Amino acid sequence: MSAELRALSRDLGTVPMKARDELIPIFRKTAQQVKTRMQDDLRGSGWFGQVARSVDYDVRTSKGSMTAEVGTNAARDSSAPLAGIAYFGGARGGGGTVPDPEYIMEDEADLMIGFIGQAAGELW
Question: Does pLDDT of 15 surpass 60?
Answer without folding.
Answer: no
